[in-house]
Write a structure and sequence with these properties.
mainly alpha, 6 helices
Length: 106
Amino acid sequence: MVRRYCDRLTLIAGSEDLLPYMLIAGAHGSMTATVNFAPVLMHELDAAARADDAATMMARFGSVWAFRRLFHDRLREGALLFASYTKASRALLGRRVGPPRPPLRP
């Protein structure tokens, strides 16, 4: 689908699970929480994809997964953790963050 429509639509990879594959296939960019605390890493991943440098892209993607593995089990249980983990990561970097907003639905 990416290859078929990327010349007519702006396609953005929103799932980190598919991120390297979407970028290689021609997605115009990504929109993930990881860019909030690792912008250089995500820029390097994107640049490697655009340069068709699969080895570098997958190495950077491995770093993304190293972070995600920290809370993977809780996500599989249905916990909504991206916002709280992203905010905690930004706080560790010395950036101001507020508390995560409560869920809109139970």
